[in-house]
């Protein structure tokens, strides 16, 4: 077994057995060194975003002092959900390794298919009703950002 994936799985067991959250773990590696390792803490924190990958990304960015993790790779015990998959992209990581599939997760009650359906605009109903309002006012910060000369693009 891959040594980093083994640690991700150990994190999944640790978090699950402590009652912190679901059975998910993640490890971020840079140049062969573990930068961060984490597990799901949704139940512990009552925060639905505290997935293993998000927690590991937060640890890694804090440790490295930057938001760009393009020189890192992530090992996840399970295929990341849409939120975590997006965060991995936003962190600019180039490599993702995962073990269990989204179908495996769905089999134990962690089914993200509805979110995929909403993203693909194939959902038969909407849980969140969205409406666009106040576009002109809300675009004002964008106009200023576009003109800002000392911005840090990410």
UniProtKB/TrEMBL annotation:
PROSITE patterns: CYT_DCMP_DEAMINASES_1, CYT_DCMP_DEAMINASES_2. Coiled coil: none annotated. One of its GO terms (biological process) is purine nucleoside catabolic process. Residues 1-110 form the CMP/dCMP-type deaminase domain. Signal peptide: none annotated. Keywords: Hydrolase, Metal-binding, Zinc. GO terms for molecular function: guanosine deaminase activity; zinc ion binding. It holds the Pfam family dCMP_cyt_deam_1. InterPro entries: APOBEC/CMP_deaminase_Zn-bd (IPR016192), CMP_dCMP_dom (IPR002125), Cytidine_deaminase-like (IPR016193). Belongs to the cytidine and deoxycytidylate deaminase family. This is Nucleoside deaminase. It comes from Candidatus Xianfuyuplasma coldseepsis.
